[in-house]
Amino acid sequence: MKHLLILTTIMLFSAIETPLFAQEDNFVKDYLERFENSRKYLILVVEMMPEDKYDFRATPESKSFAENLMHIGYAVDWHSQSLLGGREQRDNSTDSTFWVNNKSKEEMIATIDKTFNETIRLIKQFDTSQFNDELDYFGLNRTKRQIFSLLADHVTHHRGQMLVYLRLNGLVPPRYVLYQ
After folding, report:
1. CA–CA dist 38, 130 (Å, integer)
2. Which of 11, 90, 120, 137 is least surrounded by Cβ atoms within 10 Å, i.e. has the fewest?
């Protein structure tokens, strides 16, 4: 009788736990597809802008096209490596990885591409049991699952500004890449 109870308990746990893990695995799989598409579209946008227009800004107080691009890189790095991965945050005042200074268009694109690759690697290895771990996000408690969404939203926000910059320079943005 004792063995039957243990077997029943194991089967019950398996029936409940497997769908939960499957949902988490599906979230990561779906997120990676979306994130990769987001990268592809961002690269299309930044390749379209002529390098001599990378210092363009819509208003004096706005970030330039290049500053928006490098800000995306910094934010992707911070959300993924620091918030999700636990690495200490880069000190942007001394770490020049995401500074614009004298970087060519190609160097900036390479930096962004490398950052997205590192983030994709981290997400593929992310321990989904941490999804409900909470972090301080500018004074608000946010779960790591929410950090995934905040990361994607932030890329979209600044890429949207860059799309406007293309239009303001007489360029037609590349066709939107679906599911990002």
Report:
1. 24
2. 11
Number of alpha carbons in the 13 Å side-chain half-sphere of residue 79: 25
What is the b/e burial string over 76-112, where b = at least 16 CB atoms within 10 angstroms of the residue's CB? bbbbbbebbbeeeebeeeeeeebebeebebeebbebb
**Contact (CB, 8 A) for 98 and 69:** no
Residue-number span of the structural domain to which 73 is assigned: 26-168
Q: What is the pLDDT of residues 79-117, one digit of tens each?
A: 999 999 999 999 989 999 999 999 999 999 999 999 999
Number of domains making up the chain: 1
What is the Cα–Cα distance from 66 to 102, expressed in whole angstroms?
11
Q: Model confidence over 47-85: pLDDT tens digits?
A: 999 999 999 999 999 999 999 999 999 999 999 999 999
pLDDT above 50: residue 20: no
Bridge partners, 137 (sequence order): 140
Look up the CATH number of the domain holding residue 108. Answer: 1.20.120.450
CA distance 16 to 14: 5
- How far apart CA 32 and CA 30 sit, in angstroms, is 5
